[in-house]
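Weekly sync notes, structure subgroup
Attendees: PM, AL, DS (notes)

Item 1: joint prediction request from the bench team. They want all two components modeled as one assembly rather than separately. Inputs as received:
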Amino acid sequence: MTAVLPRKELFEMPEGVIYLDGNSLGPLPKGAAARAAEVIEQEWGSELIRAWNTADWISLPKRVGDKIGQLIGAPEGSVATGDTLSIKVYQALAAALKMRPDRKVILSDSGNFPTDLYMAQGLMGTIDKGYELRTPASEDVTQAITEEVAVVMLTQVDYRSGRMHDMQAITDKAHTMGAVMIWDLAHSAGAVPVDMAGSNAEFAVGCTYKYLNGGPGAPAFIYVRPDIVETVEPALAGWMGHDAPFAMELGYRPAMSTERMRVGTPPIVQLSILEQALTAWEGVSMRDIRAASIALCDLFIAEVETRCPQLQLASPRDAASRGSQVSFAFEHGYAAMQALIDRGVIGDFRAPDIMRFGFTPLYIDADDVVSAAKIIEDVVNNDLWRDPKYQIKSRVT
Amino acid sequence: MTAVLPRKELFEMPEGVIYLDGNSLGPLPKGAAARAAEVIEQEWGSELIRAWNTADWISLPKRVGDKIGQLIGAPEGSVATGDTLSIKVYQALAAALKMRPDRKVILSDSGNFPTDLYMAQGLMGTIDKGYELRTPASEDVTQAITEEVAVVMLTQVDYRSGRMHDMQAITDKAHTMGAVMIWDLAHSAGAVPVDMAGSNAEFAVGCTYKYLNGGPGAPAFIYVRPDIVETVEPALAGWMGHDAPFAMELGYRPAMSTERMRVGTPPIVQLSILEQALTAWEGVSMRDIRAASIALCDLFIAEVETRCPQLQLASPRDAASRGSQVSFAFEHGYAAMQALIDRGVIGDFRAPDIMRFGFTPLYIDADDVVSAAKIIEDVVNNDLWRDPKYQIKSRVT
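Output from the run, pasted for the record:
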């Protein structure tokens, strides 16, 4: 039996807000504030250093990793948590390059989120052995996988357009060509069904503050395919990834599990909030989430296109190639988004002209979609975005 | 005018506890729980994604960095915060090696905290160009600085013994030999006066959950000497260190400040707790902290040596070469520490036989020291540590 969607009762949502930006920062799950207070006051405050044992902080990163694993088709023990997504990208890429020492090409695409490409550039500069980063257009990436390629590193769902790569087809092509596959699940985990084990990809990374509602700056995760984990070389060889962290040995010996991808002391408060946030997924199947997400996205496209012909759909029309967001291009998108936010419809803007709306069936339903479309119609068709106060580009995210 | 020490009223401390482990995890500052609740409920809960602007989350890492800078003699804008200390070690070391491309030796010492050495090993494996890590005994490190050495990387205060390196003398020697200097301030920041600018060292890193009371897994920091920051090459080239993170460019262009050492999305909840915790230092001079710390440590040594001749001082007797902790070697140290903790005297144990006690003048006074010494006397002289329940090695920190 699966839970009925949405589960609005599990989230704090301010009055008058239709939140279509859970793909940027998920809303506050009920219980998260209380859990944080408990960790801070009872565990840290009263137990002090003892809480590593008495409150079992020490196994918190693994507990959270296993809960995330359930949402991405990863077996128990295969997901490590901590750090930021950027750091996890670096770890995966550094380890993957070590697996193909004779190849010098990293293949990504121009639709990847910039920090993934930046981290690759930083790693290439650090190694300094003539690596090359190729970033063809998304639609050309499959044919760009050749036997020169050491690693294919892609974000499954494009952060601007919502275009979704075919994980299985690309992973298979990568493996056929002898390349290692890394998937960034930033816009996939909790958004679309993912079957990491079934895909056979070597690595996946992701963040938890979007669809997983872990809060601002919540820790990231990394998946390593279990059959290779014991040979994976950690570039970021931190003590928490050591086989015996508290033996305080001078030499690094990695843990014989995905735990070797942990680095430093875990952020206990934020991990605890995330652990609480993940309870919202109990009894929910990603298949039901996906079905609801497609229905919401299709409805939104229909409603907006009917009401506002000025907006150009910037996401795939075919649901099968789209994640859980819908983007529209509009020349005055920045100002229009400010006007929308001012009226309680919160989406976000991505340069140069993308208005981005995320759909999250845990707390968004069809009524929200229609209400949002009506407000968009008002803002766009009545030129409400022309108000000078919406022209000031002060927003940073 | 400086504040009177201690300032016990600024911290939550459980009844019956004498906390001598602030060098491992500082106690909960009053106001930190309320600040966390505000960030979670008002900022995240009500403002959602807008809080990056409306609650100024975006400048939180820099605000916190500047407050830490004041405690370590670092000018405004020279300290970046985020990630873990392990990550910051990697960043500093990778950048330092780039500054000395013709040298292949990293010099540390065998008293460094293991994760610093592990991160160096991981970096060396990643670069894979014949680097060598040397770890002589602490007392031999100065003479081991030769013209072969690219980088000297040391933790100023030894985590086990409390032995403190002479920052100025070692930095000067490193520079004379043409090496780059990195200081790990894990047991220095908030513990002893540090003059980063005066030292002329290129880099410093540190954590904030010890003497700075930022809470479990609080973010770390990195200092870069301002005159070199524009040429420092970030190995971990994350989007938050980009000159224009929200321009979403495909190529990495580092910020023209220490901000280039930021990596991914900052942990807003834990940074906010840390910001609140740092208010405990307002009006406090590190000179007064140091004077009080020396008095507490000297008193503790005298009290324990008088009462328990079985314990061997494992810290320098001379305050000038000691940080803000005192360690004693005792064959049954593990069990004895468990017995102490059971009686409210919380220190910690470091293999093989070190009982470690940290002294933190913000919330520890002479009465605490004498009371703790009496309980140590009881546990050691009356063999209370022999109770079977204290023999079980389940503690992980």
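Discussion: Residues 8-29+285-390 of chain B form a domain with the Aspartate Aminotransferase, domain 1 fold (CATH 3.90.1150.10).
Action: AL to compare against the crosslinking data before next sync.
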